[in-house]
Amino acid sequence: HGVGVDSSPAMLREARQRSALPVAAGDMGRLPLRDGSVDGVICECVLSLASSVEEALSDMWRVLRPGGQLLLTDIVLREKREGSTGQGCAAGALQVGDLMQSLCGQGFRIREAEDHSRLLAELAGRLLFQGVPRADLLAWMGVPCGGSGCHSSSRLGYWMFVAEKGNE
């Protein structure tokens, strides 16, 4: 059994139209689920949008049963970023090491950590070929553009983590 959680009324309406699974309004830091009530949490490219990564991970920990699994995929910083943090999934992107520290600090045991950045590059290429303006794509990624062109002091990546809540 599954349940979807989203804070956006528009996304909840769309989910109800596309799926028979139940959906609930909620925030990552305050999931509308009981303590220890789920076997798994899937968090796809939204942790970087959280107002507090620690609060979000803490609440995911709370709702997982002991031995429960977290599948987390998100935009990450492959290098230190200076200046703009972009928008969309890139807005709150963390460095890979910082995200791993946050997971471990919350008590998760990382079972797998994989770099899937090539998928992000493929998506960017598809978007460009489908007509998304280059400047819009670069702005989404947080690359500052000005009269002298677009320059970035960092590179985005896309990572997958499988983490487990240990027995308490």
Question: What is the H-and-E element order?
Answer: EHEEHEEHEHHEEE
Overall structural domain count: 1
- CATH class category: Alpha Beta
CATH architecture: 3-Layer(aba) Sandwich
Please identify the structural class as seen in this structure: alpha/beta
What's the rounded overall pLDDT mean?
A: 87
Give the DSSP E fraction (strand runs of 2 or more residues).
Answer: 25-35%
The name of the CATH topology is Rossmann fold
Compute the number of strand runs.
9
Largest sheet: 5 strands, mixed
Annotate the secondary structure layout.
Layout lengths: L3 E3 L2 H10 L4 E3 L12 E7 L8 H11 E14 L16 E2 H11 L1 E8 L1 H13 L4 H7 L4 E2 L2 E2 L5 E10 L3
Parallel strand pairs: 1-2, 3-4, 4-5
Antiparallel strand pairs: 4-9, 6-9, 7-8
Describe what is shown at a glance.
With 168 residues, the protein is an alpha/beta fold. The chain has helices at residues 9-18, 53-63, 96-106, 117-129, 134-140; strands spanning 4-6, 23-25, 38-44, 64-77, 94-95, 108-115, 145-146, 149-150, 156-165.
Q: How is this structure best described in words?
A:
By secondary structure, this protein is of the alpha/beta class. The chain has a single domain (33-165), classed as Vaccinia Virus protein VP39 (Rossmann fold, 3-Layer(aba) Sandwich), CATH 3.40.50.150. The protein contains 5 helices and 9 strands; from the N terminus they run E-H-E-E-H-E-E-H-E-H-H-E-E-E. Strands 3, 4, 5, 6 and 9 form a 5-stranded mixed β-sheet that branches. It is globular.
